[in-house]
Amino acid sequence: MNLLGRLFRRKKDSHALYTETLECLLRGETDAAFTKLRKLVREDTENVRAYLKLGDIFRERSQTDQAIKIHQALTFRRRLSAAMKMEIYTSLARDYSASGRYDRAEEHANRVLKLDRKNRWALEYLIDICEKQKQWDKASKYLRRLEKVTREKMPGKHAYYILMQGRDREEDGLLQEAKGLYKKATSADESFADAYLYLGNLAENEGNLDEAVEQWKTFPDKSAGAGKQIYSRLEKALFELGRFGEMEEFYRGLSEKDSSNMDAFSGLIVGTTELIWTCLVVMSGVTSMGSRLFFLQ
Questions:
Q1: CA–CA separation, 228 and 220 (whole Å)
Q2: Most confident of the ranges 30-44, 70-84, 227-241
Q3: CATH number corresponding to 154-226
Q4: Domain ranges within the chain, ordered by starting residue
Q5: Rounded Cα–Cα distance for residues 49 and 54 (Å)
């Protein structure tokens, strides 16, 4: 009875100490929690959750090797529930990611998925890891799995991953492949603006200003406030094509669509002024700056 009493008391003390540790963590008192956890694992070596939390704190202190060592040791424990295994694999995935070993982080996040194929955290984490490694195609595959879990389509993200594959091809000088991927991005999500910008850029580099203009005109119509970066390039291209008068219609359309777009409104005024000046030049042969200012007053 005396032995049983001591064991019962130890378990009770262990539970109380673990509760105190959690309270410290909730209050943000990491150092106090760390001290209590080290005491706890010395007194109760069977407390897996205490070891798990201790390893997490080591990771938060940027001591990832120690965190991995603690969490990895837990995987050899017997009679672990599936839920506990997932918690351990989750911590290991975070440990390896924090240490920059993304391949091992992916491995352990996938172990979570083996135990729970609809685990949203694991899928989102795998997507994040793939993005950090610029593995766009793999990120898109995990995204499709996530869409099945959430029952929510995310065409914009798919379009982004396709676009980034195109950017990689363009950097490698594979321009036709890049163009194909940019077009594929517009098919994945026709409202994805950046693809039209890069298609226009490629067309300009090929000397096809007509195509560049068409793509660049689409870009500000699809983007939310980012379109102004293309205005000057569009003006220059239309001027070279002898179609500068189209800028007025372009700016007018943007202003009607969004009355708060002051850049488009300003462009409309300047464009109209330039068009009037051009007409005056044609009709009167005025070429001097002084004469120009006279007509515009």
A1: 7
A2: 70-84
A3: 1.25.40.10
A4: 154-226, 244-297
A5: 8
